[in-house]
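LOG
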Amino acid sequence: MADQDKPPKIPAAGAVLWRPGEQGPEVALVHRPRYDDWSFPKGKCLPGEHVLITAVREANEETGIEVILGRRLRTVRYLSDGRPKQVDYWAARPAAQTGGQDETGGPGERAPFVPNEEVDQLAWLPLTLAGDRLSYDRDTGVLSEFAAAPAATTAVIMVRHASARNKKAWHNAGHPDDLTRPLTPLGHVQARLLAQILSCFGPARVISSTAERCLATIEPYAKLTGGVVEPTPAFAPPPGSPETGEPPPEETAAARELMTGLVTTGEPVVACAHRETLPAMLRAACEVLGAPVPAGPPLRKGAFWALHVAGGRLISAEQHNLKS
């Protein structure tokens, strides 16, 4: 069959939602009466919806729990009604514990669970029991991957600013200070979308280059999550930095030093910077974590790296663009 004749894949996302238990993590499984199966909360991406937003939305819709995403897990592929389906999974934790009861009799994460046509039961189970109850081998593989690394991780996110006015045109218009160069109208749209996507990883300390285009990129996220933006010249591009290529190490030393300190605090952080400084920031973070720099193309405008850290180690890394 020619590629153009193949049915389009169905993009979907889900979460291994966990909470601490007496003998280790417990995970949430949902029962779907239509299929009479037990699985992780998941669902199809809405048209134009970023896959991270899908994972958070579906977990909330199927469990009634607001979640914060953690590390990336595997992608599962299978046929659904004759069409290829791809489900991307993340570890996730409840955003808040508010009481209630679940099937196990323990404290729930939101009270009470309300059955609906799609999901009629929610069960919190230890990993072994969850593995026994899952209906599909593909889901037990996801569970095994979740169990193979720390459940609790901290997000360290590095963002490239959104679309900004052209550098040369801004200078020719009589603005000699490149730090004042603003976002374009598209850049402001990107910043608002980026706020929604980054909020999937929960609130974090927000640090930005002093450049206007970086501050305007990350301000919507800070506002959405109740934070404030901390400007720092360390993340700003070196004066006279090249249009292409990376500045020499001595010109990014401040960015590397600050990034090293942020990674070692054990607190979530979102840092917004530039094409010129982000590669050095990523290398500094990986060096202090004793990990190789993850493979991936240079960040596009509005794209970001999300590193997930536990016990001073890099557990996983993922790169995202504004369009998934």
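LOG (cont.) second protein
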Amino acid sequence: MKIKHIQHNDIDFAKWDECINQSLNGIVYAYSWYLNIVAGEWDALVGDDYQVVFPLVKGRKYGISYLYQPLFTQQLGLFSPFKVDSQTINAFIDSIPQKYQYQIINFNTFNRLENPKGAVFERVTYQLDLVRPYFNLSSNYNENTRRNISKSIAMGVTVNKMLSVDDYILFKRANLNVPLTDDQYNNLKRIMVHALEEGIGEIYAAFSEQRELCAAAFFIRSNGKVIYLSAVSSKWGHTKRAMFNIIDKFLNDYAESHLILDFEGSVIDSIARFYAGFGAMRCTYQQLKVNRLPWYLKIVKR
């Protein structure tokens, strides 16, 4: 396979997006519009005239060129309408320009790395197939999840899809424990606006009996997968178990659809238990780290 390194301005975005659209492992993070928001002027490796594509999300700091995994983008890696083997994956990794001395790349769940030139770490996400009726989905909730949904309903929490993007962003700013930068909030807003305009995004919002907003979640859909991309609760929302109510409402709405809900996983045990409590299954993907920095910079990097 002939692999080309293509600069951002020379990428054929129509061919790129068609490849993602037709890919066995296509995902919303990999579309050009999404990458343009989260990564700016990303480059690409392209095989056989866009039959296999691999985004390179690049940065430069202190004179060092590097690759990184952008926020709101859990997985990238190789995408193709055809099954990609580990030999092809390694060929693309070997084709990454040598100037990128430091690399962090999250490959997608369909890419499996074998003996790459770098360190590989297993990462976890949680996924739930929505093909079954709601009764069957809810039967797989654990006892804690059922109890929290019942408590939320008993406390008068209701869920609708009437919240605006601006109000969602304001609510997230006010209640996020680890604040984002203004640029990161702007990127999230741009993703949400585009997704809602294209009919592939939805905001679910939970309100108290007094009509006070207490939790909200944004879902984005493509390629047979819907991603729980962003969520936030107020202290009041945590008390009222509002996020349990939101997820239950979403599953009720999308039961018997040919979609897989991807919760995006978490290294925090309590959040992972929250996902698993809805019957979601643990699923792994791989992160590649390559560090060719000089020894004195490696010490700083640690």
